Amino acid sequence: MAVVTGGIGSGRFFLLSGNQTLGREESRGGRFLDRRDYCKGHIVSHYLKALLGGALEVQLVGAVGEDTAGEELVREMEAAGIGLRSVRRVAGAPTLFSFCFLYPDGSGGNMTTEDSASASVSPEDMDRAEESFAANRGAGVAVALPEVPLAARRRLLDLGTRHGFTRGASFTSREMSEVAASRDLERVDLLGANIDEARALLRALAEEAPGAAADVVAALGEEARSRHLGLSLLVTAGAGGSYICDGGRLYHEPALPVEVKTTAGAGDALLAGAVAGLAAGLTLREAHRLGVLLAAASVLSPHTINTEITRPVLAGLARRAGWAGGVAELL
After folding, report:
1. Angle, to 10 degrees, between the axis of helix 195-206 and the axis of helix 213-226?
2. Is residue 290 a contact partner of residue 306, using CB atoms and an 8 Å limit?
3. Inter-axis angle of helices 68-79 and 40-52, nearest 10
4. d(CA 243, CA 111)
5. pLDDT in tens, 224-255
6. Band of pLDDT at residue 328, cut at 50, 70 and 90
7. pLDDT at 271
8. What are the residues whose beta carbons fall under 8 Å from the beta carbon of 69, sequence distance 6 or more?
9. For the chain, first and last CA: distance in Å?
10. Beta bridge partners of 167
């Protein structure tokens, strides 16, 4: 059983003309790209279900608006087999929407609506899903992701703790100061982060952070160990690959060489793959490798969910990487 909370929404990609940074009062031409953007709760839930299928029930807790965008997303999630009994339809609030702008050199930014249905997700929504926790005590994963309020995510992780679930989470860079000042890290078994988020957390805990990605992850792991936190770290560094740190041990996996259509959503795919691996009984290092495979497959699509990912696709990538053992056997 996997219970996931996080943003449910969609978005568009807009390619700007020219690489100059957009000015505050500037008008600039461009064009929309044939790419679909999705939000974190949907992405992770989709990949958990795609990887483990009938072996894992996936329940998503969240909200969409009573609008066309929400209806379309619900149809897509239902078709993927994601459980939606804990997804509310909210009247008077739009479904979460993200507008991504890109420069021709591949850099860009993102704007996300703050008054969406996802912003209304509450601890009470998590409480209504407790029956799923109780029915799967000691045999599930709880995953708390951004784009819903922190209070709701904390309640999900607390329910996971109460019912013996493995707890995965990620936080934005802007949230890391509050996370460091609270007991949030005590609620997490696997913390997923990009390198900017990891550096923000390290600065919040230690007031300084080294420059190199490996040094950041190692220092963050040492901070976690010295504070007697039982969490493992899963950190992506873009083209520099990704890291896990567990009990002072640091491992690195390079990004697999594939034809990249977009890197958007790759970090969410990495976390989803690792969580799926842990749910299937893999070791942390094997689960990390499953996440690397899933992230590599995700960037083959221009959309932030690659609906063509199957176990045979991942098995082919595993063979190319020369990986055997637990990962290959799962696929």
Report:
1. 50
2. no
3. 20
4. 28
5. 999 989 899 999 998 899 999 997 799 999 98
6. low
7. 97
8. 9, 10, 94, 95, 97
9. 19
10. 142
Residue reference for tokens 């922190």: 150
Q: Rounded to whole angstroms, what are the CA distances from 308 to 50, 212, 268, 293?
A: 9, 35, 16, 14
Q: How many angstroms separate the CA atoms of 83 and 46, rounded?
A: 10
- Cα separation of 267 and 272, whole Å? 9
Q: Judge contact between 126 and 91, C-beta under 8 A.
A: no
264-288 residue pLDDT tens: 889 999 999 999 999 989 999 999 9
Instruction: Identify the DSSP state of 283.
Output: -
pLDDT of residue 233: 97
14 token code pair: 């807009």
H helix or E strand, kind and range, residue 227: none
Q: Is the dihedral of CA 150, 154, 160, 165 positive or negative?
A: positive
Percent of the chain clearing pLDDT 70 (strictly above): 98
- Per-residue model confidence as pLDDT tens digits over 137-151: 999 999 999 999 999
Q: For the whole model, what pTM was predicted?
A: 0.94
Q: Which of 282, 193, 203, 273 is nearest to 234 (CA)?
A: 193
